Amino acid sequence: MNYQDLKDQTYAKPEAQLDDYKKLFSLACVGGQVKDRLKAHLEAAENIDQFYATVYADDACRFENVWGYYAKMQGGDWPKRFECEVARYGVRLQLKGIAVENETIQFFIPMLGRNRRADVYVFRDGEFNEEAVDYFTSVSGTFSCLDMDFAGTYDIFVGPRLIIFERWEFDKLGNRLNGKGETKMCCSCR
Prior knowledge:
Blueprint: H1 3-11, H2 15-28, E1 29-30, E2 33-34, H3 39-44, H4 48-57, H5 65-74, E3 86-92, E4 97-101, E5 106-110, E6 117-124, E7 134-145, E8 148-159, E9 162-167
Parallel strand pairs: 6-9
Antiparallel strand pairs: 1-2, 3-6, 4-5, 7-8, 8-9
Helix pairs in contact: 1-2, 2-5, 4-5
């Protein structure tokens, strides 16, 4: 396949899938061509679905936005392909969600779908692909959830049968780091 084949097959998708495939296309391409690190996958693929499936199968691509969005579309056990600090599988839900609480507040993380169980992960900042889940909120301070105690600032993400807590990391000046030891350009809050 080449760039034009990918574009043609994207726009030939059925109406129900078109928005998702247009987003995948925009994440895989820049400046009228497929991103350099994805070209070998495109050239080896016979069709659009094989291209995205081979990108998804390649762990070297798991931090690419196109990988994350495809993972979101497919569902499944993609978080197990990343190194987490804590994982709890098959946690029984409290009324289709999970409560988070401390001395002064309590809120509920609603779950998508009808399943009564979910997997819960805790990751360091930048240690998974955020494109694969939906951002829910951030919480700072000390709090508990599912008999786990947390201290610090966390982003919370949700997906089908999935909740992820991402622990923020800060440099000596209080600037949020991006998981690679570099200051995030868009945030200097704590």
